[in-house]
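hey so i finally got around to running the thing on that chain from the lab meeting. sorry it took forever, my laptop kept dying and i had to restart like 3 times. anyway pasting the input first so we r on the same page abt which one it is
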Amino acid sequence: MSHARSEYEDFKKVAPDVYDLVLALGQLAGKAGLDKQLIELVKLRASQINGCAFCVQHHVLLSERIGVPVDKLHLVAVWREAPIFSARERAALAWAEALTLLPDGVSEEVYAEAAREFSQTELMYLTSAVASINVWNRFGAAFRWTPTSRPVAANAAAS
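ok and heres what got predicted. didnt touch it at all, straight out
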């Protein structure tokens, strides 16, 4: 088991200007009108690839709060094999994986699929969401931020 080198809260205190910029970048896609559930699936998938436990947990919990179906959360790691994802979600997940892994750039096939599902503006903002989560993942993985705990349900706490 690894131990945190610093925590998420430390980032806000130590480098608040960097924190604010990364946070702002991550919010642009939603402000531009991209579906928040789709954005969360993309951020979750990139975080899985990058091995950022803090970000995986954060985006699972956030996805649950905004109503992403639990089956999608369980299957996002194997989205190619799961028919539950729409063509638009598949294009976004393929785009996120291509931009996260980048060994050979983005293939013509992945670009064409994304361009079929997203306008040029949407694709730019989707790219900003992928870029932002990759930045967060670099901080979370480098400093081994401790994943947040699932909030205890009020009725469970009363038991």
